[in-house]
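Hi all, posting the design record for the shared folder.

TITLE: backbone redesign
STEP: 1 of 1
STRUCTURE INPUT:
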């Protein structure tokens, strides 16, 4: 009898658990017996479904959509196929909003709206679901520092752009657009991070030359589909290619290498062989070349010391024609009249040049205005209209229609314009490349501008922060750019206005998710309204550093105790222009970051790189520094140094399931502690460059180490490591974060992009195509396999993130 009672109770418990689990499923296709079948009657003519935006989405996240049409009634429902949409809200008779649930099978779906009276309307093939579960997806953020813009003169809707990280020496890649800039794709990674890193041959525009970062010169003969490595002159420094404007076989190299290993080189066979053509040039730090568009035998060369030389015989010999500025960033030749050369400066050693033109044997300065617009970085002439000139400056773009006598603003933004391109077939079509926000385009001579950055991924995400409880909303920071936010898992991004160009360590408050913290140079930004408005807190150096130094924030955490925060960093001498930290410090705040107090650990410490806290006891805090680990159990009153003497501690993670278990990375070694950090055990040696740490409390738990050498993962506590089966695993990783829900594990990775399958040394002389990955934030979703998923419309094999 007892046995029967036990089984009855067990059956009731199991049934109750499954029933509750089913009710907790937030977004699934309805079970077959409960499917909402299309009504058998004809739709009312007053109810019509006309559109849905966005029209497609991956299936790994819930997606907010807007449905448009006519005749919508309060209380209307909506379906994609047989799946009932969630959170359907009536806005007005023509607009509904709803949530498309994750987990739908990839495919094209019919959209149906049903009013409470049973009248319905449908839109065939309205919404496309793409595969998102188990694959890596990205949606930017898009933009970057566009240093070169090239237009195919035969097919001007084909464009090329070289992109680097803004205010950085990191060259991201060469991008191509086949539709006038509306969409871009990266076709070559790791380019030379300087102006004119690429050029195309005007008489054969499918031939493109690109200077790659520390890898020499490459050529494509098919518009960027495949590439071949070219030999370069021995001993040269940084090189930029210049294709001859009329001869498809001829290409020049400008080499800038101090003091004497630069120069100009010429090839008559598309880069297979080179010959020096620097005769007469006394300053061989060549930064730029320009051709006379009517007679390309006439050439001009500019140098890093501001000198300009001229050749009238295709580079066989040169003559000095003046030193207009301290640095020559670009040269251009007027295609009309006297065909005089113009010169402008570029960013070099912290200064910018001015705009100059060569008239009657001497250089005269051209002054577009009285302010920042006099610092010029780019220039372009109209080949069809005499006197039409465009320039890019520190204060935006400008245009002259009278040969430079007068100027007018011309552009979308008052930002640094560092690249220009004019459609050779239509002078009303102009592209501007900005130092940070990518490319803008006008098709009506500047009356209207549109941002054309889709796919142009030039931002490097240096930090990521998820909103607690919302796996689709996160913040990303990019040095030299600012702050971005997404509420759809990174499918699209919003640039949050801020004057913090060098943000650090983004944090979303674990107690109040609308409160955001962003570190900056000597300050902390605080927002209480999801980044709409900001205020600042300024931690002050302690007495020992107050008279000499400023505090530089490197790390920051918000603990599980409301208001309790910690930050770490170092001190830089006030007069120093370098980033050499001379000491470190830890600060705490108990009022949500409004005020900060310096913590004296009892002795001078080195700069604090990373921080972590116990989620169950926020007074237990770990601090990793340049030469050891520090630990407090009383909120910072007393500190101890449990090991790692002489080692650089760059990553710390506390297991949220058992806070006694702590992980650390020091000098590319992985350590574990089972006693809350009192003692440590060396578990594994890691690859160099994998110095950051992320713990994902999934089943089984996953530990990631990542850095400039990619990422590796362990699922057995660090005993064994492997690179995940993704191209991302071999690219520089600047940030990672993860969300674990009851049904999914979502991992986000911020990468600088790069080459993901290198060409072998033997293959460098063959027509090999490199596989490249663009920069940006990538998302990977793994479906957690629970019994409740028997009710889901899509059951997949588990994928490791």
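Okay, here is what came back for every position:
SEQUENCE:
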């Amino acid at each position: 009898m007892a046995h029967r009672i036990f089984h009855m109770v067990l059956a009731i418990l199991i049934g109750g658990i499954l029933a509750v689990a089913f009710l907790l499923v937030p977004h699934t296709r309805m079970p077959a017996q409960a499917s909402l079948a299309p009504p058998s009657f004809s739709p009312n003519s007053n109810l019509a479904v006309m559109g849905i935006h966005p029209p497609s989405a991956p299936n790994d996240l819930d997606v907010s959509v807007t449905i448009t049409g006519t005749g919508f009634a309060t209380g209307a429902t909506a379906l994609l196929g047989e799946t009932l949409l969630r959170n359907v809200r009536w806005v007005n008779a023509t607009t509904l909003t709803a949530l498309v649930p994750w987990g739908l099978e990839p495919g094209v779906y019919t959209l149906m709206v049903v009013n409470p009276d049973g009248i319905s309307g449908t839109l065939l093939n309205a919404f496309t679901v793409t595969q998102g579960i188990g694959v890596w997806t990205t949606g930017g953020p898009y933009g970057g520092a566009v240093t070169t813009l090239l237009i195919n003169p035969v097919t001007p809707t084909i464009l090329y752009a070289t992109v680097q990280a803004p205010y950085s020496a990191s060259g991201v890649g060469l991008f191509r657009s086949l539709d006038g800039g509306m969409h871009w794709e990266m076709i070559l990674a790791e380019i030379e991070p300087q102006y004119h890193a690429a050029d195309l041959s005007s008489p054969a525009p499918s031939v493109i030359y690109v200077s790659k970062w520390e890898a020499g010169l490459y050529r494509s003969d098919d518009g960027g589909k495949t590439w071949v490595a070219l030999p370069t002159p021995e001993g040269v420094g940084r090189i930029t290619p210049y294709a001859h404007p009329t001869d498809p076989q001829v290409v020049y190299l400008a080499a800038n290498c101090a003091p004497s290993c630069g120069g100009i080189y010429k090839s008559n066979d598309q880069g297979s062989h080179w010959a020096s053509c620097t005769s007469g040039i006394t300053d061989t730090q060549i930064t730029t070349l320009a051709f006379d568009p009517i007679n390309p035998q006439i050439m001009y060369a500019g140098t890093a010391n501001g000198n300009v030389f001229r050749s009238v015989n295709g580079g066989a010999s040169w003559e000095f024609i003046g030193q207009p500025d301290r640095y020559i960033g670009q040269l251009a030749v007027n295609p009309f009249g006297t065909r005089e050369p113009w010169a402008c400066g570029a960013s070099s050693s912290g200064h910018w040049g001015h705009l100059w033109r060569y008239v009657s044997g001497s250089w005269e300065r051209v002054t577009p205005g009285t302010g920042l617009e006099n610092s010029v970085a780019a220039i372009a002439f109209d080949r069809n209209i005499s006197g039409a000139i465009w320039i890019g400056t520190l204060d935006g773009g400008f245009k002259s229609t009278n040969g430079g006598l007068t100027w007018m603003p011309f552009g979308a933004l008052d930002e640094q314009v560092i690249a220009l391109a004019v459609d050779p077939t239509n002078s009303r079509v102009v592209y501007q490349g900005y130092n940070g926000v990518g490319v803008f385009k006008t098709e009506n001579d500047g009356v209207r501008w549109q941002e054309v950055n889709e796919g142009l991924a030039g931002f490097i995400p240096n930090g990521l922060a998820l909103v607690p409880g919302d796996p689709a909303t996160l913040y990303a920071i990019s040095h030299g750019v600012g702050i971005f936010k997404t509420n759809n898992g990174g499918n699209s991004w919003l640039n949050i206005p801020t004057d913090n160009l060098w943000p650090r360590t983004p944090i979303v408050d674990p107690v109040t998710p609308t409160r955001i913290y962003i570190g900056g140079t000597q300050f902390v930004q605080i927002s209480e309204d999801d980044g709409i408005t900001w205020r600042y807190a300024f931690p002050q150096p302690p007495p020992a550093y107050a008279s000499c130094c400023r505090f530089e924030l490197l790390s920051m955490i918000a603990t599980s105790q409301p208001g309790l925060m910690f930050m770490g960093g170092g001190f830089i001498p006030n007069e120093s222009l370098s980033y050499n930290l001379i000491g470190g410090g830890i600060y705490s705040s108990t009022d949500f970051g409004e005020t900060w107090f310096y913590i004296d650990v009892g002795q001078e410490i080195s700069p604090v790189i990373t921080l972590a806290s116990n989620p169950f006891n926020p007074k237990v805090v770990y601090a990793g520094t340049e030469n050891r680990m520090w630990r407090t159990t009383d909120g910072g009153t007393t500190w101890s140094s449990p090991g790692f003497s002489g080692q650089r501690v760059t990553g710390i993670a506390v297991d949220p399931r058992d806070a006694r278990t702590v992980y650390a990375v020091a000098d590319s070694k992985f350590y574990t502690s089972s006693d809350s950090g009192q003692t440590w055990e060396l578990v594994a040696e890691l690859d160099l460059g994998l110095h950051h740490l992320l713990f994902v409390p999934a089943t089984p738990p996953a530990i990631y180490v990542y850095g400039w050498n990619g990422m590796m993962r362990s699922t057995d506590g660090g005993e064994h490591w492997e690179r995940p089966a993704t191209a991302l695993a071999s690219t520089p990783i600047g940030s990672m974060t993860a969300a674990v829900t009851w049904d999914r594990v979502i991992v986000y990775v911020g990468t600088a992009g790069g080459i993901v399958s290198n060409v072998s040394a033997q293959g460098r002389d063959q027509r090999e195509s490199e596989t490249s990955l663009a920069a940006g934030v990538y998302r990977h979703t793994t479906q957690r396999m629970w019994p409740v998923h028997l009710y889901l419309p899509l059951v997949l094999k588990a994928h490791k993130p």
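COMMENT: Residues 2-24 form the longest helix (23 residues).
Let me know if anyone wants the other runs.
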